[in-house]
Amino acid sequence: MSLLKNFSVFSIIYITLYFPTSTNAAHFDIQNNCPFTVWAAATPGGGRKLNRGASWGLDVAARTKGARIWARTGCSFDGAGRGRCQTGDCGGVLQCQAFGQPPNTLAEYALNQFDNLDFIDISLVEGFNVAMDFSPTSNGCTRGIKCMGNIDGECPSQLRAPGGCNNPCTVFKTDQYCCNSGSCQPTDFSRFFKDRCPDAYSYPKDDQTSTFTCPGGTNYRVVFCPDGLYDDGPDDFTCLVNILDQMYLVDC
Questions:
Q1: Which residue ranges make up each domain of the chain?
Q2: What sections of 128-167 are H helices per DSSP?
């Protein structure tokens, strides 16, 4: 018994030293390719100001679920990290602890779930503010997803919002668009989003064509404005500035 006990202790030490387990299930490389500054946000993860061409590396723990990454636009923060954003604002702080305010394009993920698979998607269920690419970068997983359509430029008048395009659920708050009862069908508005971003969630029950998987332990890249273009251009984009402790919208 003593020999077996000593062997077991030795085995645990050996495995720990020579076969360490990773505390981070995935690394996310978040890049801004937009021709303007964005304030990247992640829950979990916080937030980071990204000028054009800048990136932010984020390590995420195993079995994380219900997580998302998004871009905030038109932001102004003080030295303490307090302020406001035109789109994607998360309670007026730079370091997000809560989800963002619509409209915002979302990269969503759950790591090491059923069969140790990662589940990833791009969602427009909370609207659209910037184009996005969400792609695996390791582990033999090659199926990336994109949302590149001209949604801002072609947004229906009922859904238009400063800096983006709202999902109809945000505007009308009805079961038809929000699927509160657990059962709903595509609508003309959801088809507007789906036609322009076929890989993305266009309404809450859009699972079959919008959820993708990779083996657990895969790393990922999220790129804002992957083609480097912004369809609305600077004339339709505003920024928040702080003047004598008052926030004002101005042309960027």
A1: 22-251
A2: 151-154
- Two tokens, residue 238: 């505003």
Mean pLDDT of the chain: 87
Mode of pairing for the β-strands spanning 67-72 and 38-43: antiparallel
Q: What one-character-per-residue DSSP string does 170-183 give?
A: HHH--HHHH-TTS-
8 A C-beta contact, residue 212 and residue 115: no
User: Measuring CA to CA, how many Å separate 135 from each of 74, 93, 107, 149?
Assistant: 26, 28, 10, 17
pTM tops 0.70: yes
Instruction: Of 85, 177, 80, give the one whose Cα is nearest residue 126.
Output: 177
Summarised one tens digit per residue, pLDDT across range 10-34 is 443 333 333 344 455 899 999 999 9
pLDDT at 63 over 80: yes
- CA distance linking residue 151 with residue 196, whole number of Å: 7
Class of domain 22-251: mainly beta
DSSP lists the bridge partners of residue 173 as: none
